[in-house]
Amino acid sequence: MAQAEGGSPAAEAAGASSASVKSGKFVFGDGAVYEGEFRETSAGVQRHGEGSYSDGAETYTGSWESDEMHGRGEYRSATGATFVGELKEGLYDGHGVYSWPDGAQYTGEWQAGLMHGEGSYRSGAGVTWVGTFYRGRYDTGKAYVDVRDEK
């Protein structure tokens, strides 16, 4: 974790919401910034609770657990893609909406960072796939189809 502006993380803590969770602002050596709740553990300082992280054009605002994005949040990548929904241990997991810069969008269930479960994918060209997704692919009932051409 980074050092808080103006001193140690404990020195910058303000308005603790419980005995173990504090809040503050941290600036990393590469210029990335975290502002929000954290806790001090034997392993060091960890983002934990609600907070915002920004590293240039990449941002995340939402819940953290043990220094990982975990719970409900909103992530924006440096490419302009966005995800709003549930995360588990840093991966999309649960219900969420992912929007690509080309206009494509998936709304539905996620598991371990992949479209997985019931959902709806609309391509940038307007083609829509509604139904069951399995490990990132659309299940036609006869075959699994890649709906997102990454080429």
TrEMBL record:
KW Repeat (keyword) present: yes
Write down the superkingdom of origin: Eukaryota
The protein in question is named: MORN repeat-containing protein 5
This protein's species is Cafeteria roenbergensis
Record keywords, A-Z = Repeat
- Locate the coiled-coil region(s) and give their ranges: none
Bias category Low complexity: which stretches? 1-20
Task: Spell out the residue ranges making up region: Disordered.
Answer: 1-21, 43-70
Q: Where would you find the membrane-spanning parts of this chain?
A: none
